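Lab channel / #folding
Pinned by the channel admin:
"Please post every new chain as: sequence first, then the structure tokens as a reply. Keep commentary short and put observations after the output so the thread stays searchable."

First post following the new format, from NK:
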Amino acid sequence: NISLEDIEEVEFTNDGEHETLHVKQHLHIQTMTYQFTKSIDQDKLYEWLSNLPDSIYRVKGFVKFHGYKFRL
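Reply from TO:
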């Protein structure tokens, strides 16, 4: 299991499950996929997201937070 703190310390590479597009190489775009295995603290995630560098263009997905029955 990886905490939000651990994510900040890891250098990610393409997981190999997605097709490599030539435009990614031309534009120097990198992707990262992460799947949480359990619920996480909503406030810690918001704090972590607010501290991402301006070079992060998009983050998407569904997350199960502590205390919520469904993923948000």
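NK: The chain is about 30% helix and 0% strand.
TO: also worth noting, Helices lie at 4-9, 22-27, 42-50.
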